TrEMBL record, chains A, B:
Gene3D superfamilies: 3.40.50.970, TPP-binding domain (3.40.50.1220). Keywords: Decarboxylase, Lyase, Magnesium, Membrane, Metal-binding, Thiamine pyrophosphate, Transmembrane, Transmembrane helix. Residues 26-134 form the Thiamine pyrophosphate enzyme N-terminal TPP-binding domain. One of its GO terms (biological process) is aromatic amino acid family catabolic process to alcohol via Ehrlich pathway. One of its GO terms (molecular function) is pyruvate decarboxylase activity. Belongs to the TPP enzyme family. It comes from Aspergillus coremiiformis. This is Pyruvate decarboxylase. Mg(2+) binds at D473, N500, G502. The lineage of its organism: Eukaryota, Fungi, Dikarya, Ascomycota, Pezizomycotina. Binds 1 Mg(2+) per subunit. The keyword Metal-binding applies. Residues 222-357 form the Thiamine pyrophosphate enzyme central domain.
């Protein structure tokens, strides 16, 4: 809000010619045209009085405006959108808006989602005169929020000069592409419709610059080929930065051409086709099957793609392949054992590697047996358990779907999903800001719908891709209001709410019985109605299950199998029920508590 | 969450003696004992795996733990609590938690609410070895978030050393008291139960240090007294930083002893007794009554208390008294005309001034007439309008209540409330982060309940104070989930939701008909039930009104007059209806749109 009266001006994206015959365009039109060129179709955010005039240009430029309930949710949504679409954008207002969003921007930085954070700021006149306006500390200091964003973005620009604005926009956007990380653009209110040179729009494409061919490239390539041909117990380990490296087609081909045992990290899950015989899915180290761990541990060659070695993505560093047997592709570096070779385009190198591979010389490897899953031990009246729930429901997923698991028991459990091909998955990686996943799914589902990228290729006749989100009741409370935007945008989402009465993951870590891990109980199945869904539809799109029998009925229901829009399934599970690593932690807690009672 | 297994240790606040006979105490016990000494009874926040062990100490130390649905809401709540209680505290976890909260901390900085932001951080071992853990950027850099907080807090400390931790805590807390602004404390996970010296706890009180008596103090006092005695058209202008200066009793006495016409700013509203004959309430300059403006403009002496001259708190700088006739008390400075006299204790100076005042020499002044309010022009079937709504409902308020208006049409309208004595009011001032007010009211209502500070003194027989919050439907969406905490904590709150279909304040500024100022429609009266209220009670505590007749019935109802707990009144008003300055802005928009159609 503001007390300044603006003089709104009519705008149009038509370019004009100035006296020196150079074509010009309004700054906002230039910026949004660039976003469109880079494949962005929707922009997220919240209006505020320093960005209103900027927002006037969004829809006329052909972009959809997706107003979110608050800015943090908008940032999360832009991040989810970027992970599916390749790039996302968020518009906030100075101070209050951008700082509300900053945790989402930080998460995008940590996990490599390229989000363009555009902030509408006070006019240059107000800033230059250090006027004491709202959304500041009334101290005349206008640069604090940019300084804060410099900690969480790879490039920043303050667009105060029409002579350089176009180049600033271009180079900032390019940095987002290069690093697959967020950038920050400030647009003063009076710069929105200032005319700037338009020539770059057609003459200069924004793209990742090519990497010069390096002197030693051939010898490195030869080394890698020889290691492949001579391998006896090789494996491929796909980690999540492969997405940011834009090498998923190359990874797919490598997995198929070698037929080698392939695992992913949490972050990498969903980036390779888990239906292939040689793909084992998530590597769980000590929490997985013994034969797999034995194979992994005794490998003499591990091809590592897009490594991201935080404690949480590596189960406490236990899934990191041994350096001495690894050839690792990350950023612009190829690491062979202890030697790092820098300044390569990984995409280019892998392409060349695949072209050079003599498939007859690739060792044929039989990997360890895959563990079999069955549900013979379950009866209909059994309470739903974390152990069996995830593999029980994963038959719902179809090619083209997106599957997401929020940080908590869901993110641990969801690692055991067996995914259909071309099914993208989001799990908790490193930033682990609970509350992230619900708005991120708003963004991801929207990108899925817009791009059709993840639709089934061979026409299963089952319509477009859906999104399945698994979220705990504690996480849900953080950002629940974005359910209303999912409803408004008519997205096809199935939302599993795991009701286990609080922060179970925290109980497993510390404070199992402490009240601080409790939450207020909500009536989850009233969400669709409260947040504005059609009341009759809402009633039909609500489900709940306490036993596997009830769950089976829900999974078979027409609304879940073939329905559309947002559907909510509340699943009740034990307050201390968890599996995998979390179970080990919880058991330690239980043992300690028992000891104290003695 | 974390993959580290902690070894929980039994703790107790009992002090122990070390070898040199110095008494020691666990760091967390020390910290929470200090908060208790400073009058904090409840602490807000969200658990996260780097603060769990710290949280173990909260309740044993006698503090209440108030878990909020997310960290931004926690920060807002701590701010609201601080404004009523004098000091508030928030506990978050490293990275994700503290950055989610940072916009709330920034708001507390802007509007001078002393909030202690305590962050649980990874252990010193992890930090020292630059281990790549979750809630970081997996780059070994642990200091980014402190750097960001340095922009929005007046003091910061990282408690990594038991030798200095006590002094660091003390001096950081003292800075919060001195500046009435937020501070930042990092507690590594392994420092929580480290023993530190306890002696300060009893030997050294944390307080604002005294100001030395200054050489010129007597002559300044004489000057001020002479100006008071010789005034012909004097007035008192109470602004909001008076709260932070801790001079409200002195202000009250000055207003009573002089009997001079007194106005407040938005920020100052509720800090003086509006039932006194000489108190006019909010000074609206061009949007108020002509005789008041005429008096204000022709004053020959304006005593200004706690000025805060942002554009929004001064209606675009139109309510700032002329410098040449002003004696202004702010921070530690007394400004007489253009001369600034520094390093005074304003509290001490005003106390001395009041002691020195010869009441017989104070000019008796008759102020301008007060505008009369009546509702004769309203009939029962009239739709509710912004113009009349606020004065229509203000008879609900009783001594001891708190009244809050969220940024938007409510904050503009609420300036016209006539408040009973000892009724505190929060309005939109400078930070104006929409979404703030609902969680802030959670904090304020809790402080109100705990302290009894604002209970009626002369026993009206009507029970304890309530809180009335007026909030628009757009703002509500930002932070709506904290309704569940209001329910859980059984706070006596009446929530007026102004349903005008979107961001009306933004429509008044720009984009009157633009879709970006729309929001998804919600079923507000399902909130009590969705967020876990008792279902039968919830049904009875819901109200709605579209006409003044309906509103009158609601106001008269037993549940509103005498009820307890959270009650919701949905009031429907026009999409473009607003009053005061906002109406002027909206009319400008309408005129411009009409012109464009021609």
């Amino acid at each position: 809000m503001s007390i300044n009266c603006y003089q709104p001006q009519q705008h149009s994206a038509t370019m004009t010619q100035n006296s020196t015959s150079e074509r010009t365009i309004k700054l906002a039109d230039y910026l949004f045209a660039r976003l469109g060129q880079l494949g962005i179709q929707s922009v997220f955010g919240v209006p505020g009085d320093y960005n209103l005039r900027l927002l006037d240009f969004v829809e006329p430029s052909g972009l959809n405006w997706i107003g979110t309930c608050n800015e943090l949710n908008g940032a999360y949504a832009a991040d989810g959108y970027a992970r599916i679409n390749g790039l996302g954008a968020l518009i906030t207002t100075f101070g209050v808006g951008e700082l509300s969003a900053i945790n989402g921007i930080a998460g995008a930085y940590a996990e490599k989602a390229p989000v363009i954070h555009i902030v509408g700021t006070p006019s240059r006149a107000l800033q230059d005169s250090r006027t004491l306006v709202h959304h500041t500390f009334a101290d005349g200091e206008y640069r604090r929020f940019a300084a804060m964003h410099a900690q969480v973005t790879v490039a920043q620009a303050n667009l105060i000069d029409p002579r350089t604005a176009a180049e600033q926009i271009d180079s900032t956007l390019q940095q987002a592409l290069i690093h697959s990380r967020p950038v920050y653009l400030q647009v003063p209110d009076d710069m929105v419709d200032v005319m700037i040179p338009a020539s770059n729009l057609e003459a200069k494409k924004i793209q990742v610059p090519p990497t010069p061919r390096l002197k030693y490239e051939t010898s490195i390539l030869t080394t890698v080929l020889e290691r492949i041909y001579s391998a006896q117990r090789p494996l491929i380990f796909v980690d999540g930065e492969s997405r940011a490296l834009d090498i998923l087609p190359q990874v797919d081909e490598l997995v198929k051409i070698t037929g080698w045992p392939t695992w992913t990290s949490t972050f990498g899950k969903g980036l390779v086709n888990e239906q292939l015989d040689n793909v084992y899915g998530f590597y769980a180290a000590n929490y997985g099957s013994e034969p797999e761990t034995a194979y992994f541990d005794s490998a003499d060659l591990v091809i590592v793609l897009g490594p991201h070695y935080s404690n949480t993505n590596t189960l406490g560093y236990t899934t990191i392949p041994k350096q001495e047997v690894s050839i690792s592709f990350s950023g612009t570096a190829i690491q062979i054992g202890k030697d790092t070779h820098r300044d390569y385009s990984i995409q280019q190198f892998l392409t060349q590697l695949l072209e050079s591979l003599d498939s007859t010389r690739i060792p044929k490897i039989t990997g360890p047996p895959k563990p079999q899953v069955d549900f013979n031990h379950i009866t209909k009246s059994d309470a739903i358990t974390q152990d069996d729930f995830y593999r029980f429901v994963d038959r719902l997923f179809r090619e083209g779907d997106i599957v997401a698991t929020e940080t908590g028991t869901a993110s641990y459990g969801g690692r055991t999903f067996r995914l259909p091909p071309r099914t993208r998955m989001f799990g908790a990686v490193t930033w682990l800001s609970i509350g992230y996943m619900l708005p991120a799914c708003l963004g991801a589902a929207l990108a899925q719908q817009e791009t059709n990228k993840y639709k089934p290729v061979n026409g299963t006749g089952q319509g477009k891709g859906r999104l399945f989100l698994f979220i705990g009741d504690g996480s849900l409370q953080m950002t629940v209001q974005e359910i209303s935007t999912m409803i408004r945008e008519k997205l096809d989402i199935v939302l599993f709410i795991i009701n286990n009465a609080g922060y179970t993951i925290e109980r497993a870590i510390h404070g199992r019985k402490q009240a601080y891990n409790d939450i207020a109980p909500w009536r989850h199945l009233q969400a669709l109605s409260f947040f504005g869904g059609d009341e009759e539809e809402a009633a039909r799109n609500n489900f709940s299950a306490r036993t596997f029998g009830e769950l089976e009925e829900v999974l078979q229901s027409e609304r879940i199998q073939q329905g559309s829009g947002l559907r909510i399934i509340e699943v009740f599970m034990g307050r201390e029920d968890c599996q995998g690593l979390l179970r080990t932690l919880m058991n330690t807690q239980i043992a300690q508590d028992a000891q104290q009672l003695r």
